[in-house]
Amino acid sequence: MVEDGSEEEEGEAEGERGEMLGAPQHNGFLPGKEAENGGPGGCTAGGGRVETRLSRRRLAVLAVFSCYSLVNAFQWIQYSILSNVFVHFYSVSFTEIDWLSMVYMVAYVPLILPATWLLDARGLRLTALLGAGLNALGAWLKCASLAPGRYALTMAAQAVCAVAQVFILGLPSRIASVWFGPAEVSTACSVAVLGNQLGTAIGFLLPPVLVPNTPDDIDLMAHNISIMFYGTAIVSTLLFFLTGVVFEEKPKYPPSHSQALLQAMPPEDYSYKQSIINLVKNVPFVLLLISYGIMTGTFYSVSTLLNQMIVTHYEGEEVNAGRIGLTLVVAGMVGSIICGLWLDYTKTYKQTTLIVYILSFIGMVVFTFTLDLGYLIVVFVTGGVLGFFMTGYLPLGFEFAVEITYPESEGTSSGLLNASAQIFGIVFTLVQGKLTTDYSPRAGNLFLCAWLFVGIILTALIKSDLRRHNVNSGIVNMDVKAVPVDNPVERETCTALKIQSDL
Question: Does the structure show a pLDDT above 60 at 366?
């Protein structure tokens, strides 16, 4: 963990004094007490005490992150939803416009390991500033591409936004763990994921309103595009400055016992390479990595090819195809929040993940066999159900990964999950697209159903070892010793805080 060193305002600290949060009082863990010799947030051996508090700033951090994540997702979808407009404006093919969306997936996979290393080595604040800053830079570069013949520049701008995404998608679980207490951590993660989904939803709705298709008036088309581009740039720049003001590395006091333990570990004891090795050797995480990739890759594929599937059976219904896509996203937003609240209430990570996976499989089967019935309202309903469970699975996967890999970095586990999703998404989109074109949408969807069934089996095999929850609940008895700041020799004893991956 990188030490920020900034202090909370005195009034805020006093206001928070009564806002205590801690794990049940097991094994000498007593929230709200000063740690002997260690001070607030310190740790002591045996009957030691650790103070945990909720910071008011946590809500502002979550809100600002969700907003700039929203803008990044909006910038991803704004081209594909207006593909016919941009094909005409830049005089390029539909394939070239499709690459303006595909670049997000392509950029993520090779950059995720450097990005997660940066998060672990340089911390949350710098990573957040990079994500928000690159997002704003890409938006302003798009403003410079407002002329026919500047497709290469708009592609470069979108590539910058794609790099920004690498510093965004892996942060929800890290922000939730570092800033939020055990009773709200899953809900916070869901809200952080929700921002990205909301950006996609707005991306379905707003661009067609701002940029109507005017093929006979290129000047008017350029003017309408400029409104969208400049508006996005101004908003993303404002969010970049807010990120600089609001984000801190961590709150003054840890929000949970598990965070108190991690923050007491000497930074030199952390090895990014060893963390990756630990994750690769963690069999439950590897199973989750594959099953998460299958589920999320399936959702990416269905979302990408939805228009093609709909117009095959409902000719001329392109507008309703977009609305069905919006239904998937909005239903998924509701699913994310409900799943997050449920996890915070029950802590039943594996059971909930497995049930949602099974329901997603059932929803995909029903969607597949009702798509060609001739009733568009049925597609709206089945599409909404599919989006509810598939997108609701996203925060479940993040939080389950954090639980079974603690004390490894949340950013690294989330980053690897997202990389898996991007890889499966690309492969599934290519294969399903080929099957849909050569045979029928049903053939492509049955291909995805088969993979979802494999994902159910893999999920059922995951061992539910809730390490973070056990620490917060006091179930795991830790030998923790207080170490004076001015004694570097005795500081080594704090390595007892490390929870080895083979626990």
Answer: yes
pLDDT at position 263: 66
- Give the Å distances, CA to CA, from 496 to 22, 111, 271, 297: 21, 33, 16, 40
User: Is residue 120 a contact partner of residue 270, using CB atoms and an 8 Å limit?
Assistant: yes
Q: Under a CB-based contact definition with an 8 Å cutoff, are residues 233 and 143 in contact?
A: yes
Mean pLDDT across 446-473: 84
Q: Report whether 376 contacts 230 (CB < 8 A).
A: no
Contacts of 60 (CB under 8 A, 6+ apart): 246
- Between CA 286 and CA 98 the distance in angstroms is 31
For the chain, domains (ranges, CATH) are 55-256 (1.20.1250.20)
> Residue 307 has which token pair?
């228009």
For 1-10, 78-87, 395-404, 478-487, which range has the lowest pLDDT when averaged over its residues?
A: 478-487
pLDDT at 214 over 50: yes
Q: What is the DSSP string of 392-404?
A: HHHHHHHHHHHHH
Residue 90 parent element (H or E): helix 83-90
SS3 35: strand
pLDDT computed for residue 169 by the predictor: 84
3-state secondary structure of 20: strand
SS3 of residue 53 by DSSP: strand
Q: Which two tokens stand for residue 427?
A: 């492969």
Predicted pLDDT at 432: 87
Residue 33: how many CB atoms within 10 A of its CB?
A: 14
Token pair, residue 59, equals 């809500």
Query: Tens digit of pLDDT for each residue in 147-182?
Result: 988 999 999 999 999 999 999 987 888 888 888 888
Q: How far is the C-alpha of 311 from the C-alpha of 85, rounded, in Å? A: 19
Q: Give the span between the Cα atoms of 105 and 40, in whole angstroms.
A: 43
Task: With H, G, I as helix, E, B as strand and everything else as coil, classify residue 238.
Answer: helix
**pLDDT at res. 495:** 38
- pLDDT single digits (tens) 89-125: 998 887 788 788 878 888 888 888 888 888 878 888 9
- In this prediction, residue 468 has a pLDDT band, given cuts at 50, 70 and 90, of low
Q: What is the DSSP string of 242-302?
A: HHHHH--SS-SS-SSHHHHHHHTS-GGG--HHHHHHHHHH-HHHHHHHHHHHHHHHHHHHH
* N- to C-terminal Cα separation, the chain: 21
Tell me how far apart the alpha carbons of residues 255 and 178 are, in angstroms, rounded to a whole number: 7
Count of CB atoms within 10 A of residue 479's CB? 10
